[in-house]
Amino acid sequence: MKKILTLVVSFLLCSFAARADFLVQPNDVVGVCGDSITEQHLYSAFIEDYLLMCQPTAGQKVVQFGWSGEQAPAFLARLGTDVFPFKPTVVTTCYGMNDGHYGPINDLVAKTYRDAQTAIVEALKKNGVHAIVLGSAKCVDSYTYHKHDVAAAAVYNQTLGALADIDKEIASKEGVVYADVYGITLDTMKKAKAKFGDSYNFAGPDGVHPGPNGHLVMAYAFLKALGCDGNIGTITVEPGLGKAEATDGHEIVSCANGTVTVKSTRYPFCFTGALDSTDPATTAAVTQFFPFNDDLNRFTLMVKGLTGTKAKVTWGATTKEYTADQLAKGVNLAADFLQNPFVEQFMKVNDAVHLQEGQETTLSKVLMHNAASLGAIAPGAPDLLKQVIAQGMTQHDVLYQNAADLVVPITHTIKIEPEP
């Protein structure tokens, strides 16, 4: 009897651990909430891209709820009108940028923020949200903030750091997950500027609203907090280069003489631009300064028993050379081949996600939020608005499904050519 109980308890603990690792479960609705930075539809789109293509979950939906200029108390006030009608079960929040009032922190600012963030967590729990990621605000740019006011940037980053500490405390007290957006963005910004110069634009011309480079770092913080494991897949080629096997999400179509054809339903995350680009609208260069590829984007090629000391690997239109030892240990194709067979379809999905998120902003921020006041302007208006909102919700599902349907299997070839 004791042995049976031990086995049952062990099974339950293992099952719980499996669930706890990755917060997005089948049929979850993931709500991405925040201020104007969220309403840029960039880090939220990267999160959705990843959940659609890199680590998909059956039946999931993703919705963003960004609102320009918003502070935590205002978000708390609109949960019932704008957010809960979508029935989110997983929610990420990103507040603090406006809550600090762009100056030194004081007791009133800290208390107002703490009270609102705590109330948000409690309200989400009471309304069916089983997983909450409380994210801190990002840092401001040490160069572009307040028209190159370095002192002001330093002061406000101290404020944002203090608010981040409050988020961490609340998350610990409330038993939810904390995402250290502030810490990872500040560290990445410093490293990027050390290489590219102080004027490297990490957080937009105003020092607050980043381009895709800064948003990718924000997405990383949330995806890690959500428990994404980063294992896109592994392709293993056996001795003689005539046999290969693949992990889930990938199917070996053929393998002969070092040419492996693979059909993949799970994509590596794809970037824009080059590693030496200082353009904030691109994403490849910033990956040098934080571990996106190591932690979230491992698409590994392993070649066992390679004859010779090195080999050329061609994937798509790009060829790289590796030592036999590197290939035996495994190389990350996603990091090494910026241009690869997945890029074109990845960007099509990303475009569809942006279209969907734009519709969400109008639906929730304009129609749903103002339904009560709009319904008072004419007889019959409330019923008409209900119909319009219902149609908007249906259209949202259509747009999400359009993006999901673009995640089609990609057949691609990896060619391995041994060298002396």
Topology:
Blueprint: H1 2-21, E1 29-34, H2 36-39, H3 43-54, E2 61-66, H4 72-83, E3 90-94, H5 107-126, E4 131-135, H6 150-174, E5 177-179, H7 181-196, H8 212-225, E6 231-237, E7 244-246, E8 250-256, E9 259-264, H9 292-296, E10 298-303, E11 310-315, E12 318-323, H10 324-329, E13 331-332, H11 333-336, H12 343-368, H13 371-374, H14 381-405, E14 410-419
Parallel strand pairs: 1-2, 1-3, 3-4, 4-5, 6-10
Antiparallel strand pairs: 6-7, 8-9, 9-14, 10-13, 11-12, 11-14
Helix pairs in contact: 3-8, 3-12, 4-5, 5-6, 7-8, 12-14
Please tag this protein with its features.
420 residues; alpha/beta; five-stranded parallel sheet
- Judged by helices, strands and strand pairing, the structural class is alpha/beta
Major pleated sheet? 5 strands, parallel
CATH topology of the domain at 25-225: Rossmann fold
Helix content: 40-55%
- Total of DSSP H or I helical runs spanning 4+ residues: 14
Strand tally: 14
What would CATH call the class of the domain at 25-225? Alpha Beta
Tell me what the structure shows.
The protein is α/β, with parallel strands linked by helices. The chain has a domain at 25-225: SGNH hydrolase (Rossmann fold, 3-Layer(aba) Sandwich), CATH 3.40.50. 46% of the residues lie in helices and 19% in strands. The protein is built from 14 helices and 14 strands. It has helices spanning 2-21, 36-39, 43-54, 72-83, 107-126, 150-174, 181-196, 212-225, 292-296, 324-329, 333-336, 343-368, 371-374, 381-405; strands at residues 29-34, 61-66, 90-94, 131-135, 177-179, 231-237, 244-246, 250-256, 259-264, 298-303, 310-315, 318-323, 331-332, 410-419. The strands form three sheets. A five-stranded parallel β-sheet has the order 2-1-3-4-5, sandwiched between helices. A five-stranded antiparallel β-sheet has the order 8-9-14-11-12. A four-stranded mixed β-sheet has the order 7-6-10-13. A hairpin with a 2-residue loop joins β8 and β9 (259-264). α4 (72-83) packs parallel to α5 (107-126) and α12 runs antiparallel to α14 (381-405). The protein is globular and about 75 Å long. The model is unreliable at 1-20 (pLDDT under 50).
